[in-house]
């Protein structure tokens, strides 16, 4: 009889010593919270845990109230060594030294006798420094963005456990724990942590898991809220999770800077009553003048949704520091979000989808998006 994926997860996790957790580029708060929880759990089990993800919108800052794991990286450069090997079968080496300057590294090899035959040299990549990779909220291999280019072979040389709750997951892992009925990645992660050791979930881990569930369910108010999510949340509170503190940090702390940005966006908001679309644009000057960043925009979209009950699609286009045009869009009130997402070429990050526009101005980018949506 084949093993269920929870049992497989426990066996792989238990055997592994060095575990790398990968998140999609611009991950959801749910995915980051789940990664925090699994990292803390692995550390308690004496595993060497590393969490890697690209965070262009600085979403990690939103979760600064949680206990942040130690080994978080935002680049995969240097993840594996390369081996320069010399055969000593016929001519042993008596000494090796190196000299390094700004231009190059010199390796000096002294043989015991005679000259060195170049045919005795070989050059090859070493094994990866991790024996297990766990992905969270990643629907496809190239979803890690720039990290994919930095270490392209990692998905093919290390066992992959793929954890997700979306319907468009490619099931690219050796173990695929994709539960589309789960409210959040944290709900799935809680079950998996319990399978490792039923006593692992302390207050630190419980806070991380409850944060993800609250974020993914919009504090138990959106369509992702299920009876199972409520039961899991209740158990986490029993384990010490601080629900009111989490809600306070996620929803009730609005800085003056955020309110200034909200005011600017509201002043140029457009309501397309015919197509039920609400949209606006944000320039780099807006970010500069209000001392905000693109990481604040998901909060703005949530506020827009609460003010436009009839709206079905909500999007904001913004300029980055190089004046490239990016977009955030929420399709959650539509009947077929996947189809609309395909039209815009978006990547999912929880309820918010992200994309980059080929247009060079915000005005032309808005027209392009509206044409695609219509």
Question: What's the level 1 CATH class of the largest domain?
Answer: Alpha Beta
Mean pLDDT: 88
Q: Write down the CATH topology of the largest domain.
A: inorganic pyrophosphatase (n-terminal core)
Q: Tell me the total number of β-strands.
A: 16
CATH superfamily of the largest domain: inorganic pyrophosphatase (n-terminal core)
Largest sheet: 6 strands, parallel
**Widest sheet, order of strands:** 3-2-1-8-9-10
Strand content: 15-25%
Radius of gyration: 24 Å
The end-to-end span amounts to 50 Å
The number of distinct helices, counting runs of at least 4 residues, comes to: 13
The CATH architecture of the largest domain is: Alpha-Beta Complex
Which percent bin holds the helix content? 25-40%
Number of domains: 3
Shape: globular
Q: Low-confidence stretches at least 5 residues in length (pLDDT < 50)?
A: none
Secondary-structure element series: HEHEEEEEEEHHEEHHHHHEEHHEEHEEH
Which structural class fits the helix and strand makeup?
Answer: alpha/beta
């Amino acid at each position: 009889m084949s093993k269920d994926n929870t049992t497989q997860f426990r066996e792989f996790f238990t055997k592994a010593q060095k575990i790398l957790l990968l998140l999609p580029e611009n991950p959801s708060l749910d995915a980051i919270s789940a990664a925090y929880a699994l990292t803390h759990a692995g550390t308690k089990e004496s595993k060497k845990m590393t969490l890697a993800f690209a965070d262009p919108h600085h979403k990690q800052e939103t979760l600064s109230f949680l206990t942040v794991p130690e080994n978080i990286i935002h680049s995969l450069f240097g993840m594996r060594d390369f081996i320069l090997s010399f055969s000593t079968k016929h001519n042993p080496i008596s000494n090796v030294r190196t000299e390094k300057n700004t231009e190059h590294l010199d390796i000096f090899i002294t043989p015991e006798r005679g000259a060195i035959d170049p045919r005795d040299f070989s050059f090859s990549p070493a094994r990866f420094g991790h024996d297990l990779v766990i992905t969270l909220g990643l629907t496809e291999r190239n979803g890690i963005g720039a990290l994919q280019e930095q270490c392209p072979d990692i998905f093919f040389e290390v066992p992959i456990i793929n954890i997700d709750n979306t319907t468009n997951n490619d099931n690219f892992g050796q173990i695929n724990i994709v539960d589309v009925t789960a409210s959040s990645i944290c709900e799935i992660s809680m079950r998996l942590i319990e399978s490792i050791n039923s006593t692992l979930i302390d207050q630190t881990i419980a806070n991380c898991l409850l944060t993800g569930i609250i974020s993914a369910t919009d504090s138990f108010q959106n369509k992702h809220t299920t009876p199972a999510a409520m039961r899991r949340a209740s158990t986490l509170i029993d384990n010490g999770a601080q629900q009111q503190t989490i809600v306070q940090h996620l929803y009730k702390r609005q800085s003056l800077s955020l309110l200034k940005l909200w005011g600017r966006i509201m002043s140029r908001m457009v309501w397309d009553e015919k197509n039920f679309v609400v949209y606006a644009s944000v320039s780099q000057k807006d970010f500069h003048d209000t001392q905000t960043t693109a990481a604040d925009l998901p909060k703005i979209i949530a506020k827009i949704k609460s003010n436009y009950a009839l709206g079905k699609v909500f999007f904001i286009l913004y300029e980055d520091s190089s004046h490239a045009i990016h977009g955030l869009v929420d399709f959650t009130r539509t009947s077929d979000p996947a189809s609309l997402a395909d039209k815009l070429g978006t990547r999912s990050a929880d309820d918010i989808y992200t994309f980059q526009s080929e247009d060079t101005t915000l005005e032309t980018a808005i027209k392009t998006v509206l044409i695609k949506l219509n």
